[in-house]
Amino acid sequence: MKKIFLIIKREYLSRVKKKSFLIITFLVPLLFLGMWGGVIALSIQDSGSSSTVYVIDNSNLIINDLKDTESLSFEKATRSANEEKSYLQENQFLLVIPENILESQKLDLLSSQKASIFVQGEISNQVDNILRKILLNNAGIDIQTLDSIQPKVKVTSLEITEQGEQESNAGVAMGIGMFASIMIYLTLFIYGAQVMRGVIEEKNNRVVEIIISSVKPFQLMLGKIVGIGLVGLTQFLLWIVLSGTLLTVGGLIMASQMPDAFSPEELSSISSSVPNSAAFAQQNSLLGDVQGTLAGIDFPYLISCFLIFFIGGYLLYSALFAAVGSAVDNETETQQFMLPITMPLLFTYVMSFGVLIKDPHGPLAFWLSMIPFTSPIAMMVRVPFGVPLWQLSLSIILLIAGFILTTWVASRIYRVGILMYGKKASYKELIKWFNYRK
Amino acid sequence: MLEVKDIVKQYAKHLALDHVSFTIKKGSIFGLLGPNGAGKTSLIRIINQITAPDHGEILFNGEALSEKHISRIGYLPEERGLYKKMLIGEQMLYLAQLKGLSKADATERIKHWFEKMEMETWWNKRVEDLSKGMQQKVQFVATVIHQPELIILDEPFTGFDPVNVDVIKNEIIDLNKKGATIIFSTHRMESVEELCDSIVLINKSKKILDGKVSEIKNAYRKHQYLIKYSNKGIQLKNPEGYELFQVLDTQEYEEGNKATIELLNGHHINDALAHLINQVQLQELIEIIPSIHDIFVKQVKEN
């Protein structure tokens, strides 16, 4: 036991002390923060530079109701259309409104370069509203009455659970499911491959025979797997802590720089400046919904499930990775043995996006989340949608049985493989090794 | 110290060791000899408990080999190496602790050995920064750091440069004087002949012969002598009437003749000498003793 601890300590420290570990640990949360900040910045800022639109209104219906925005200002043209055209500079537009605008509902926007969708959208949006008012007025409909009648139906999806009916949001569950399955898929590969590389390194260095004259091959393999697994958990923990800290700090900085960023007026001014304000408003209310649902999500439960299935899946696959590492002399030879390891993971990964996420309680989802080779990914897709306790427990029990089995099989190949130098192993050879007595 | 009893080891279709038995005495320097692929490494791995025999057993100081003996054996494998990126000091500490030393003990021993081998400044270096010769020294220290009672060296001098071979030979002799039993495994028999007091010869998974080097050589002595004398052109002759010896070969060299003779009918060299002294002017007389290599080749041919 003491020796396994020594091995775990070496495997753990030698990786955690590496510069690359520190870089990745700090870089990933920064990337998250950058992405998050970028999205917010993009949604708040528009094109940045402001443009001037010279208007020639032949109908005289529109021009007085056009409102300047932060990025667009409207001015009445003083010259004739042809003259005005020749004076247009960058970020200047000429809007020509025909006399029969009510019937034709067509406008010309002239500029020296292609007008952006934003400018086009803004103009059509404003003119639409003005025309609508005129048309409604002409039809004898009171606009204020109309505006006051705006039914808004919200469908609340309720999930019947043991704790009673809980609000659920399929969109949020989907997002979390996807994210969790991507994380499991990536980390199983990243840390599994680290185990494999570690084994190959020891074999290549020829240090392995010295080590196993002091400890059993199984102890060395297990020590390596546990050590690297702890590196993975450390990284997760640091990511969670760092991302949380960065997000909080980042949020505070943003809030202090833009104190009114999220005040109602600001929001409405943003929405009025965005072309499709109705869609934005919808998005905004969806965001509110998401926030509401996020608050209702049981994060400790999700994170525990994630950790259990990461650890289980990691133990199962890393043992196989270790066996592959022991069978080869260098990384280029690993290809032929990688396929059977990659296939179930890749299959489940593809299935999670295609099928599982749409039908998280169907038979395929059920079976994939029971088979130990596929359950870490499949179950994490399903967990946010709610999984009966008996299924969750059965899946975990099968996963534990699965990794005990793969570890046993892998260790039998490993103990022989690490001492085979310069021999190109085939599957037949591996079976032979498996059947060797000690 | 170590009793190897009727060991059989089978790998799939290949029989690596076929009922091999021998005994190694405490405090001896023992040669495990044989050509490549004879089964030496298989046997060493069994002694190190890396693999287990299919049949037979090994006794360590009279006890069946078990996990507690691991810390009492030091092993320098033929395929050897160290972690390239790890600091030498940390690496030593790790290997010594794996052999069961406490951290404090290990640190003290490492310091002692580093001083002895003039490696004090290496603690914070990485293996990849050391020359090959330096790495070999590190490797040797790692093998003996836990003061093992039994030191097993598999092809110890292949890959070592001549200066280090001498340094390490002396260290081995020193450790042996302090009570450690040494096993040398090699296919280059001449390299350990001078060091070993006992040997076992293995060929094609089977033991061919074992015993004390002096006894084996005695048993294979042919009572042949090389005699140099200054009388050019004169052949050595037996006294009239009886056969003392047989002349196998006579050659001229710069300062005279040299002849190879074999004593006959159990006569002693003194008898021949008493006779020859009257015949020629003697310069030199050496007994031709077969080398272990010669004995091995002879045995293999006979089997």
Features:
heterodimer, A: 438 residues, alpha/beta, D-Maltodextrin-Binding Protein, domain 2, 2 domains, 4-stranded mixed β-sheet, two-stranded antiparallel ribbon, 17 helices, 6 strands, 67% helix, 7% strand, elongated, B: 303 residues, Rossmann fold, 6-stranded mixed β-sheet, 4-stranded antiparallel β-sheet, 9 helices, 30% strand
Structure description:
The complex is a heterodimer of chains A (438) and B (303). Chain A has 438 residues and is an alpha/beta fold. Helix content of chain A is 67%, strand content 7%. In chain A, α2 (19-44) packs parallel to α9, α7 packs antiparallel against α15 (375-382) and α12 (299-327) runs parallel beside α16. The model of chain B has no long low-confidence stretch (mean pLDDT 88). The longest helix of chain B has 16 residues, at 162-177. Chain B is elongated, with a radius of gyration of 25 Å. Chain B contains 9 helices and 14 strands. Chain B is of the alpha/beta class and 303 residues long. In chain B, a hairpin with a 2-residue loop joins β4 (55-60) and β5. Chain B starts with a strand and ends with a helix. Chain B has helices at 40-47, 88-98, 103-116, 132-144, 162-177, 190-193, 213-219, 269-276, 292-302, and strands at residues 2-11, 14-24, 29-33, 55-60, 63-64, 73-76, 150-154, 181-186, 198-203, 206-212, 224-229, 245-253, 256-263, 282-288. The interface between A and B is medium-sized, with 25 and 27 residues. Chain B: Residues 2-229 form the ABC transporter domain.
